[in-house]
Amino acid sequence: MTLSILLIVSAALFSIGLLAALSRRHAIFILIGVEMMLAAANINFIGFWRFNPQPQPTGVMVAIFAIGIAAAEAAVGLAIVIAVYRHYRTTNVDELTQLKG
Amino acid sequence: MNTAAFVVIAVFTLAAALAAATNPNLMHAALSFALAFVGVAAFYFFLGAEFVGLVQVFVYIGAVAVLVVFTILLTRREGEKHRGVNWSGVLIAIAVFAGLAWAIVKTPSMSITPPQIAPLTVKRIGEALMTDYPWPLMGAGLLLTVALLGALILAMEDKRE
Question: Are residues B13 and B72 in the same domain?
Fold first, then answer.
């Protein structure tokens, strides 16, 4: 159990989130992919805090603030999905082409 | 630290995340998303950040997962149309993972074992929040208030004419 193994696991979680954000067509799941990438970053922060012999809890603080901000982002994102659905009757991002040049 | 427990948590988290990223059934994918965040919270507990793990459980499994399920139910018409695998997305994800893993493996100072540290109590976290991070704390509170009001206004029924 070394820091590099933890970082590789969080890199894998980040890549899975990227895969969800790139290959999903449903707007909610693009948001979920972004949340997964944020969680991977948080695991890195906690990991670097745990493997640092100094006692400052900086990594934990960053993770707590990041969770709060991610919750705000999820609330606004889901509200946007509902508003878009009300206007266009779809949540498929491939069909939302009104701004396409 | 217990390597077997780490492997179990890692496999569980990554499998649930992969299911959330690829399952065409929206409701199953949303539940896999909740499971993946249970795994992330287990990582925090495993690393000794119990408070962050609890916050993760409350915020993600308690609030965000429920919000996602409600949004799916409110907007559902038909499931995602079954289309072929998006190979460009898979390729980009694999390339990003390969690049990150290469950078991690090539960095020699990353292969260290965890040192003995004093357990981080909630009292210590509260003291740090109130003494070292008061402005970020207030900024986060303001941001949450503004974001929730904004979300309410965005999702509100448009009552004009």
Answer: yes
Structure tokens, B140:
């986060």
> Which residues in chain A are closer than 8 Å to B68, comparing Cβ atoms?
28, 31-32, 74, 78
Give the C-alpha separation, B129 to A5, whole Å.
30
Instruction: Give Cα separations from B33 to A31, A42, A69, B22, B69 (angstroms).
Output: 11, 16, 19, 11, 10
Within a 13 Å sphere around the CA of B58, how many CA atoms are in the beta-carbon half? 9
Q: Are B26 and A50 inside 8 Å of each other by CB?
A: no
> Both tokens of residue A78?
């889901």
State mean pLDDT over B23-33. 90
HSE of B9, CA atoms in CB hemisphere, 13 A: 22
- Read off the pLDDT of residues A30-73 as tens digits, 9 standing for 90 and up: 999 999 999 999 999 999 999 888 878 899 999 999 999 999 99
> Domain of B13: which CATH number?
1.20.120.1200
Using only the alpha carbons of chain B, give its radius of gyration.
20
pTM of the predicted model as reported, rounded to 2 decimal places: 0.91
In this complex, do B74 and A85 lie within 8 Å of one another by their Cβ atoms? yes
Domain hosting residue B126, numbered range: 121-161
Separation CA B120–CA B127 (nearest Å): 11
Residue with tokens 């990438």: A37
Cβ separation A15–B93 shorter than 8 A: yes
pLDDT digits (tens, 9 = 90+) for B68-91: 999 999 887 665 565 667 788 899
Tokens encoding A93:
């991002």
